[in-house]
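Lab notebook, bench 4. We co-purified these components, and the gel suggests they stay together. Before we commit to crystallization screens, I want a quick structural picture of the whole thing.
Request: model the full complex, all chains together.
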Amino acid sequence: MHWDEVMSLVRKDLKLEFRQRWALNGILLYVFSTVFVTYLAFSGKMDTGPWNALFWIIMLFASVNAATKSFVQESNARQLFYYFLVSPQAVILAKIIYNLLLMLVIALLCYGVFVLFMGSWVVNHALFIAALLLGSSGFAGILTMVAAIAGRSGNNFALMAVLSFPLVLPLLLTLIKVSAASLTPAPFSDHIGNLLVLLLLNLLVVVLGWILFPYLWRD
Amino acid sequence: MKENLWKWLGGILILYSIFAGLLIKVPDLPVIHESIRNLFYHVCMWFAMIIIMGISFINSLRFLRTFELRYDILAAEAARTGLLFGFLGIFTGMIWAKFTWGEFWVKDPQLNGAAVTILIYLAYLVLRSSIDEEQKRARISAVYAIFAFVLLIVFIGILPRLSEGSIHPGKGGSPGLGVNGLDSTMRLVFYPAIAGWVITGIIIWKIRVRLAHLKSRIEELNG
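Here is the predicted assembly.
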């Protein structure tokens, strides 16, 4: 595996995304309208508790939606073509990196729209941003791997949610805990431990993907 | 013959734990009182489940090393047997919870861990049923099983950190053992009960494996 293999695959994915922009726009619109629906449902009045919970639930759904198409948008013939060109590890790493970029865009937009409609409750910005970054990368890692699994079976879309939700839970609960703390004036240093847990989860997922993905790939 | 010996052992241990569990004198503790006897039936389910899920995990690993379908059958049937114990554990736990905490479902890391385990393995079965080709099904579900089991262990490890502490008696995080308040007469029933259920679980698993082999043999003959 070479690093430039990974980089060219990421570049390829980005190019594809920009050529058929409906996919990205679809996700962005999804985030916007979900937040808007929430805003209307709550009539604009929201406490920190629901704010935090809803933010991460919307993040989760948008991320699952975005990651679903990771492995199905390209035809089997083209996948076979990659099979001869690059190592499987390069493919999974490239997809994780690409999805990470996508999740970061989603996270930023989600936060932006939340602040626009429901105001910001964030007090400790550094902690919240750390949660956003680690959350995006964790979602990217787990969901890319689940997308690879679900993409191999017949009904990709239905399976994606079923397979990924229980796996995302440890990450999601830790994130909600950290982000809830960032809404209170708690000092950053209190939550180094939880951030470390998030970081380790990220590493673990990437390592697992690295080891397991080659088995998914050969047919 | 040897197989039969295990069956007898498992059966006798379970019968012993049922009768002794109802008959022995238990310490009268606040809140749980006599319902403490459910310990012999409820907690054993989780021991059996975790051990059998571990068997499933090991067989998934073995499948990815060898690509022999018999390991896939071993792993899948272990997951199904484990789920049976998971459901039994949830039900016995819900009854206990109703009588001690007043609700069937309470906010507690142990319960959430159990629910997630069941969700993961139900998803595993859905994934299996969605792929027709045997070799492909085996490979993909093995990958999911390994991925999920590792994350599950992490989850069970993380959970206690996240919550304000379990309301389960005798808990400082580790599920099951570490019940410091367990007195010596209760141990005499508790440990054999665990052994009995684990042995019975393994026997159920083995029978299911044989059944699965027979089914695939019938399909071969028909097709």
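Residues 31-222 of chain B form one domain. Worth comparing against the SEC data before the next meeting. Chain B has one domain: 31-222.
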